[in-house]
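re the bet — no i am not wrong, look at it urself. input seq straight from the record:
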Amino acid sequence: MTLDPPWRGHGLAAVLACEAITRLMVGCRAIACSPGITDLSSQRLTDRCVWDRVNARIAQGWERLGFRLYRDNVYVLSPASQDLEEQRGTLRQHFAELGEIWRAEAP
C-alpha cells in the first residue's frame, strides 16, 4: 500500500495493514513482508541516513504488529500469534481518534 503524502506519518499504514492482514490471513501458515519505502519517485529522501532512518521506522511499525525479522529485510508473522490481534484493538482506537481529530478540523 502507498499513502499519499498528506496522510503519511499519522499511523494509518499500521491500521490499514492490520485490517488487511486480518481479513486475508485465513488459511495462511505464514505472512511475510519486506518493509520499506516504495515511493521511489519522491525526491525528499536523497540522504542515505534519512532513507535508513525512515526504513527503520517502517520496520518498527511491522514489528509492533508482531512481525519478526527472518533475514535480510524479510519479516514474518505467524497467523497463530496473538500479537496481531492484541495490536488490532489499540490500532482501531488510534484510527477512531484520528477520525475525530479530522472531523474537528474539517471545514
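see?? Strands lie at 31-33, 68-71, 74-77. told u. also The mean pLDDT is 83. so pay up
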